[in-house]
Design a protein that fits this description.
By secondary structure, this protein is an alpha+beta fold. It is built from four helices and 14 strands. It is globular and about 50 Å long. InterPro entries: Flavin_Rdtase-like_dom (IPR002563), Split_barrel_FMN-bd (IPR012349).
Length: 197
């Protein structure tokens, strides 16, 4: 087994290792609206929930070269609002399209031909075809190395009837997509384990 001391390797090498080791990663497909009213939509694989009884999610955004934040980070920092849209297989290609670097005055919704749905408690729209969306308000942000980390308190869940069984989300009806290392994604392949404790 080889050992790679982080202080001895290039950041591109350590970045590839951590992205391959921490897999599969859920994708936060995050919609925001700029102060000028432009809707933005971008996927983030540095995303997860950190609290469930009082739902809080987090995502981190890498700072662009030159120290400028990405549009998503800029919008959340300035408006305090975002929506997380759950990525499923039928939306995977359009999700990938929204990772394109567009000018700040162009919307990824339009670029990827995605329909918007109104949110009820925040300004940014939801992805209309997302089976689950989470409306969030930013409650904290941190700068860690080259990343801005945002923590969002979930204000409202939007859940399609297609994935609800007796009022609960049924995972057999939710084919989520995750990110692997490099250019690879993965779809859900369920494995059931019986707990014996």
């Amino acid at each position: 087994m080889k050992e790679f001391r982080v202080s001895d390797i290039d950041t591109q090498v350590s970045s590839r290792i951590i992205k391959s080791a921490v897999t599969p990663r859920p994708i936060g497909w995050i919609s925001t609206t700029s102060a000028d009213g432009v809707d933005n939509l971008a996927p983030f694989s540095c995303y997860n929930y950190i609290s469930s009884d009082y739902p809080v999610v987090m995502f981190s955004s890498k700072v662009k070269q030159g120290g400028k934040p990405k549009d998503t980070a800029w919008n959340v920092a300035n408006t305090g609002e975002f929506v997380v849209n759950v990525v499923t297989e039928r939306l995977a290609e359009q999700m990938d399209q929204t990772s394109a670097e567009l000018p700040a005055d162009e919307s990824e919704f339009d670029f990827a031909r995605l329909e918007r749905a109104d949110s009820t408690h925040v300004t940014p729209p939801r992805v209309a075809d997302a089976l689950i969306s989470l409306e969030c308000t930013n409650i904290e942000s941190l700068d860690i190395h080259d990343r801005a980390v945002f923590f969002g308190e979930v204000e409202t869940f939007h859940i399609d009837d297609e994935v609800l069984v007796n009022g609960k989300v049924e995972m057999d009806h939710l084919d989520t997509v995750g990110r692997l290392g490099g250019p690879y994604y993965t779809s859900v392949n369920r494995m059931e384990l019986t707990r014996e404790f």
